[in-house]
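Throughout this chapter, every protein is written as a compact record of paired, labelled lines. The reader may check this reading against the record printed directly beneath this paragraph:
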Amino acid sequence: MNDSASEDITYLKLALRLAKKGLGRTFPNPMVGAVVVKDGKIVSHGYHRKAGLPHAEIEALHIAGRNAKGATLYINLEPCNHWGKTPPCADAIIKANIARVVCSSRDPNPDVNGKGIRALRRAGINVSVGALSAEAEALNEGFFTFHKAGRPSVAIKFASSLDGKIATRSGDSRWITNEQARKYARSLRRNYQAILVGINTVLHDDPHLGLRISGVPEPLRIILDGALRIPLGSKILRDNNVLIFTTRRADRKKYKKLTDDGISVVKFPTGRISLSSVMKELARREIISVFVEGGGEVLGSFVDTKLVDKVYAFYAPILLGGKTAVSAVSGRGAESIRQSLRLKEVTLKTFGDNILISAYIDNGKGK
């Protein structure tokens, strides 16, 4: 690697670190960092702080001012060239007389996807693309999946005994994993725009499903509740940052009460909730990533329909046994080993005597 290429990598790594500062705040936008370099020195840097606020490039260029002329701009994602909530970044880069742009990856959004790069090149700007592309895609994996697959990225999480149970035959589930593992599991929510559970989880555990981090927006809380059995005093209904999917079996009085209180309720005309329809509705609402926390039937339905991109499996060194104990992943299940969901890029993390196995689903197409 020559000195120029090595320098590019150094500044792109900085851009990626800056981008991550926007974690949990930029949805449905990607996390982006930008660094302006001139004569071997950093002139300015910035990152996308929150959806609706200036993009990383705009912030960095504003700080750089006239020093941006003839400089190199390093960013982890292709600059946009269209109007959204903010003006096109490509136009601002051209106007600032940037000489060179180095970005890690093209933007998968069809509204951009190479158009920003072409606009810069037409203006005479030298553009390099591809360095640290794997790292850039991993940082914004939900954003990339959303625009490539046309649906939210889906991660499932469960905490079970070594024999795959998330509750005993009597329904006791507190607590299988230790406090350290549970704290880490809660921290994972910040990576996702929405948290999804089934009604049984709400009825049995009355979960909060929040981040409880000052200054970071709470994820949207999604409940699958076919008959609208959710108690009105549930913690999950503490505000209207909630989306409930139900069916024609829904309790009419409760439906009216919830909607009158500003809770979004989507009612399917059939007697069952279709996950493919749920995904379409979430995509329509620009929900780019979903963290599915249970219960076993809900996790099983996502596995059965192969609507899973990533798995977080926490294990504690206990055995629960019991044919009627609740399995971590229920549903129909695979008929043969060949039909099972295979995992790749498996990583292990320990929390005392607890273990987390995280991995991506191997669909033969890469991440």
Q: What stands out?
A: The chain has a mean pLDDT of 93. The first helix runs from residue 3 to 19.
